[in-house]
Amino acid sequence: MKHTVIKKILVCKPLYFATLNYAINPWMKPGTIDGKKAMQQWEELIRIYKDLDVTIETIGQHKGVPDMVFATDQGIVKGNTVLMSHFRHPERQGETKYYEKWFTDHGYTIHHLPKHIFFEGNGETYFWNDIIFLSTGYRSSEETPQVLEQIFDREVVPVHVIDPEFYHLDMSFLPINKETVFYYPEAYDEQTQRILKERIPNLVEFSRGEVEGFAANSVVTDHHVVVQSGNKTFEEKLHKLGYEIHPVDLSEFKKSGGGIHCLTNILE
Ligand code: ARG
Q1: Residue 73 has pLDDT above 90, yes or no
Q2: What pLDDT score does 3 carry?
Q3: Domain that holds residue 195
Q4: Which distant-in-sequence residues (6+ apart) come within 8 Å of 125 by Cβ?
Q5: Is any ligand 1 atom within 6 A of the Cβ of residue 10?
Q6: What is the pTM of this model?
Q7: Per-residue pLDDT at 257
């Protein structure tokens, strides 16, 4: 089995995350975040990445953009180019300028989508073998699949989500390696379920409890999986597949509908 190894990531230090004062997905609980606890949880995630020999690049958070902590949503990095996201909700649109500056300062070439196209980066896409899975239904625009297909010169397979709890692909879908993908079938329409069965040789179901425990928001590097703690059944499934588990509790970030994968933008 071939494994991808993550060498370098971009993360955002959650300096003002607790100021969250809006809700744009069903998980969000504005006004309930413990900022100190969130920082400790985030630091624990960073410690795990360092133990796994991942190089960490950090951007500081700015005031007024609490969801800026979710680095993966900001854009797709390929080599030294970045395709910047265009957030659907005005509440998140202010994040982009800070990331754009960071990428420019660090030598990346920036690409933007046409103004009317919404797209939320790795939150809603997975590059897998020679295709791209993109979630549709809540955040991306109707034209986003064709636009991405042209930009990346790859087939885009739309994953049509029908439940707002799974607004981003990384809430219900997790490629583990080149053959195996975990998914939560009830999050998608019937056509999507059929297509996924056709395209993925080893498709493994998440249970309702697992997706509610944010198991889909894990990060896989080599034979290691960083998982939200408390997902025993998911951990057992991963063990059987030969993976080593690194649990971390990100309960404060769950109050904005985010977890491990959301906080992690893979640079290399
Ligand atoms: N509150 C944020 C939003 O609704 C959470 C984003 C989490 N990111 C993710 N990749 N699932 O946009």
Answers
A1: yes
A2: 77
A3: 8-266
A4: 76, 132, 133, 134, 135, 148, 169
A5: no
A6: 0.97
A7: 98
